Amino acid sequence: MIKNRLGNYSVPRSAYVHIPFCRRRCYYCDFPISVVGDRQKSDKFSPIPEYVEVICEEISITGSVCQPLETIFFGGGTPSLLSVNQLSRILDALEQKLGIVANAEISLEMDPGTFDWEQVQGYKSLGINRVSLGVQAFQDDLLQICGRSHNVSDIYKAVDILHQSGIVNFSIDLISGLPHQTLEQWQASLEMGIAISPTHISSYDLVVEPVTAFGRYYQPGNAPLPTDETAAKMYRMAQQLISNSGYEHYEISNYAKLGYQCSHNRVYWENSPYYGFGMGATSYLSGQRFTRPRTRQEYYRWVQHECQRQLSLQGHSLENQGIYKSNNYLETNQEYLLETLMLRFRLAEGVNLSTLSQQFGQKTVEQVLIYLDPYQKLGWVEFMNPKGIVTPYSSQQKLPVEGYLRLTDPEGFLFSNTVLSTLFSKLSNPVSIASKL
Question: Which residue of 18, 77, 112, 122 could cross-link 158, Cys pair, CB 3.0 to 4.6 Å?
Fold first, then answer.
């Protein structure tokens, strides 16, 4: 089992909880979900309370150490389809098994039209202090094209409810590159999103997954999807409008007002460990990533058999907990390096060269600099010293031990796939990487 050069694995202080239920499946969605239709109350749909009980069982028999959670993220699916009591059951299970710090960031994904003021007040009383609102677009025709269950009027009603409920920290999701979406529509969505003054904005470019409805209807780069050139203009437009409106572009697709970055999502981008619970959820513990089954019945069987088997084991080390046999793997040094680069380059601060050197050796850092040299000349990669000052660099010169290598904003971020593809190709030889560690 690998360990990084900073010592033992750190203890997970974050948990992702997957709530798979949605009113309908959006046409771009390939997440593991269960469609419930337009029911207004989740207690009218028996699979939801059953799922809550099973996920609480999984939590209760998960091995843990005495480090309370600092972030919790309820994702989906549409977690706002859960009643206050159902959400309370899951939070109680987490508190009893893992503990939750008093000031924990507890996020809940919510869709417009799936909640009211009383419901949000109940969530707030449980400790929910951050909401991620699935807006996607401010045009009814585009929402319909996406298969969304809400309209623009629902968006404004949802925002009013959040304001009235005193939920200060809320984020909105927007999607560019939708079928038939024009630059003018994208600009309007950005401006209307900024106008409602969320503390955080996530701006995603549509990815057409083959198993989705969009994957059956459309081919990337072909009409009615925007061209690559138009998609690039949309990215630059988002960066300019949102950044100029008081938001920090702290990650490729994410912007936040001062003090409102998503602490939970930073756990992923910093390649730190975390618990995952629920259907299709992934955990990252002790150098292992493992995924639960993606259907409810398979997940239920796994909880019943696999977790019960592990409960009977003597000792409950993290290595023995929550492993879905057919979908877990132990990272090699090479995989850990590539994941670190891929995730850290998503962040505005980029890769800490000192940390990279400690973990993988100075020779590996020198190789990374050589491979990135062409992109530095294109203006896609830059060096930033510890004081935040950007200075020119060349792969031929020795960079200071302290500092960061990062992608430029917006061009480096825009062409991040090209940069990362080169790194993955050049650093994909396990023998050469191992020799540098």
Answer: 112
